Amino acid sequence: MGKFLKSAIVGICSLIFFDTGCATLKITCRAKGVELELFQKAVDQWIKQTGNQHKVEIVTLPHSSNECFALYKQWLSAESFDIDILQMDFPWIGAFGDVLADLKDFYKDGEIDEDDIFSTIKENMYFNGKMVALPAYTDCEVMYYRRDLLEKYNRSVPVSWQELYETAKFIQEEERKTNNRFYGYVFQAKAFEMLTCNFVQLIDTFGGAVIKDGHAVVNSQECVDALVLLISCLKNASTRSVLNYSEEEARGLFQAGNALFMNSWPYAWSLMNAPGTAVSGKIGVMPIPTGNAAKGKSSGVIGGWFFAVSKYSKRAAIAADLVKFLTDKVQHKIRAEFAYAPAYKSLYGDQEILNKNSFFAVLSRSLENAVARPSSTFGKDYPRASHEIFNLVNTALTESLEEVDDQKVAKKYLGRLNRKLNKIIDHQKRPKKQKSSEGIFQKFSNVLESFTKSNDKSETK
């Protein structure tokens, strides 16, 4: 009985841990918009270009970024070799960098034109000196505005947040004389990742930051001033409904002709300019305005998606070749025709691209000044840190509607946020418990050996 059990369990274990018979390369991809279709066509091109030697299976990711992150965490923690290439959101690379392959092991020097990639994107390609990811496309928030309404009221395109606030407040009051659903500024303040993006770029425009010298500094006066400005917008130039708005709710309000300004991602451009919308042909795009002329700058939080190779892949060299193909300038230009922003600076001077997406000229300036979320500092704890940011900022905005002293509210919640973020950082610095050198299989083998010895003894009795 013991010998039978031993051979049966070892057989099952072999299937679980050592089945490498399948030679198909597996890559994950999102299915939002035309993204999946574009990458499927690119993969087919690569297969043909490489002489039809390889098979590639695209694994469709969940729509929710949080679900994707959890799925990757599960796969990579288990050291799974089922997935070779991972499509990764911008802030995830710091979280998973230690389990991604160094792509430079597979490329010749100069094969990737790094000098042509925007600096903030290039910095995110690296983890502890290793090139672990290449950009599939990038993203950066911009500010949309109604050109026709600024012209109607003889107002110029604002350069600073204060100008935007004053213009939004004034035109809201005027437009509400005939349209009581009109608002000066619509944004996303729901407690989710987009609010973290909005907060990070806002404090950057005021000269503030989330992290400085390894510590959280969101309780600085610059950050307080930034949050007070946002509170003023919420109270006097927006709708309290933004406290539950994500990108699409904000776009819906703006696209219906009921807002003057809206910050969002580039994807909204083509949708809002589609024939038949209330704002088609009436929209302008500007960078996120400056908060503090002396210390801050025009900004925009950077986003986008990358491709990386799992270090557990059994076909890492082939996977790296596909990643190189999917992220080269030719593929970036193809995706740019569908408003997926390129990571290469030179493509923003390509007239064919600009003819289809005129606002890319503004987007390129935003990318030059873009700010990244603090994922490199928090690593695997970034989701927890982001959760603290968007929850406390959302709560501060909500409470401000019932309070008079905006400075007091901002200081209260940013002080609390600062303590929580530093607590996460301090926890990371604590000595980690020594992990057992035994892998999952070794542990299983030990249990198996003990189990079979016990059964062998019972058979001899």
* Rg from Cα: 26 Å
**Backbone structural class:** alpha+beta
Q: What's the number of helices?
A: 19
Strands ordered across the widest β-sheet: 8-11-7-12
- Number of spatially distinct domains: 2
Q: Which band does the percent of strand residues land in? A: 5-15%
Please tally the β strands and state the result.
13
| Shape descriptor | globular
- Second-tier CATH architecture of the largest domain: 3-Layer(aba) Sandwich
CATH superfamily of the largest domain: Periplasmic binding protein-like II
Helical content class: 40-55%
Q: What is the CATH topology assignment of the largest domain?
A: D-Maltodextrin-Binding Protein, domain 2
Average pLDDT metric: 88
Low-confidence stretches: 1-22, 435-461
End-to-end CA span: 13 Å
User: Major β-sheet, in short?
Assistant: 4 strands, mixed
CATH class of the largest domain: Alpha Beta
Q: Can you offer a commentary on this structure?
A:
With 461 residues, the chain is α+β, with helices and mostly antiparallel strands. It has two domains: 2-132 and 302-368, Periplasmic binding protein-like II (D-Maltodextrin-Binding Protein, domain 2); 142-300 and 375-427, 3-Layer(aba) Sandwich (D-Maltodextrin-Binding Protein, domain 2). The chain has helices spanning 2-18, 35-49, 65-77, 93-96, 119-124, 147-152, 161-175, 193-205, 221-237, 247-255, 268-272, 316-326, 329-336, 351-356, 360-368, 375-378, 382-400, 406-429, 440-460, and strands spanning 25-29, 56-60, 85-89, 126-127, 130-131, 134-140, 142-146, 183-186, 211-212, 215-216, 259-264, 283-286, 302-309. The strands form five sheets. Strands 8-11-7-12 form a four-stranded mixed beta sheet. A three-stranded antiparallel beta sheet has the order 3-13-6. A hairpin with a 2-residue loop joins strand 9 and strand 10. Helix 7 packs parallel to helix 9. The longest helix is centred in the last third of the chain and has 24 residues, at 406-429. The radius of gyration is 26 Å and the shape is globular. The two termini are 13 Å apart.
